[in-house]
Amino acid sequence: MKKNITIAVRLTLVCIVFFGGIYTLSIWGIAQIVPGQGKGFTISENGKKYHLLVAQNFSSDKYFWSRPSAVDYNAAGSGGSNKGPSNPAYLAQVQARIDTFLVHNPDVNKSEIPSDLVTASGSGIDPHISVQAAKVQVKRIARSRNLSSVEINKLIENNIEHPLLGLFGTERINVLKLNSELDKLR
Asked: In this predicted model, what pLDDT tens digit does every residue of 16-29 receive, in sequence order?
């Protein structure tokens, strides 16, 4: 029994040194040489820093709208709603989002609205929308900013993020980056 306790104590000490010290310092060191130095990817606009991988709430007609958030865009408490697709409260919430979208985008038919514009992501803070979700908003933005649809579509094309290695995932657009580029136009 004394032999087992001695082995357990030694293993505990080795784990504390390795995982509490060596491993932690190794990960910290690697983070210092990658872009962002382990602090995430940020952009600065008007003296404020915004994290590119955390959704921002855009609701003005002159911006591309983000994906809805189940946690009110709070990165400290990310998570989904846990409501199933047949839950009446969830269906009412999605219908309200559809109705709001149609009021602000009268040129769009209900069948043209991509699901990512009316349903929240699993994390509640997904910063990306599909290319289709961006394109369905072009007329509203062009009208509110007095820009041509061609200019906005070109901006969308320039901001498409392609799948990893051309295989993993789908094409998507970071809404914060897209809106930042949009502000540079006018």
From this structure: 999 999 999 998 88
> What is the CA 84 to chain-centroid distance, rounded?
22
Residues 28, 109, single domain; the answer is: no
Q: What is the pLDDT of residues 43-74, one digit of tens each?
A: 777 777 777 777 788 888 899 999 988 887 77
Verify that 112 and 133 share a domain, yes or no: yes
Domain that holds residue 179: 41-185
Q: What is the phi-psi region of residue 162: left when phi exceeds 0, alpha when psi lies from -120 to 50, beta otherwise?
A: beta
- State the pTM of this model: 0.76
- Measured CA distances, 120 to 13, 43, 101, 123, 177 (Å): 45, 24, 14, 8, 20
Domains identified in the chain, total number: 2
Contact 56, 66 (CB under 8 A): yes
Q: Do residue 80 and residue 123 come from a single domain?
A: yes
3-state secondary structure of 45: strand
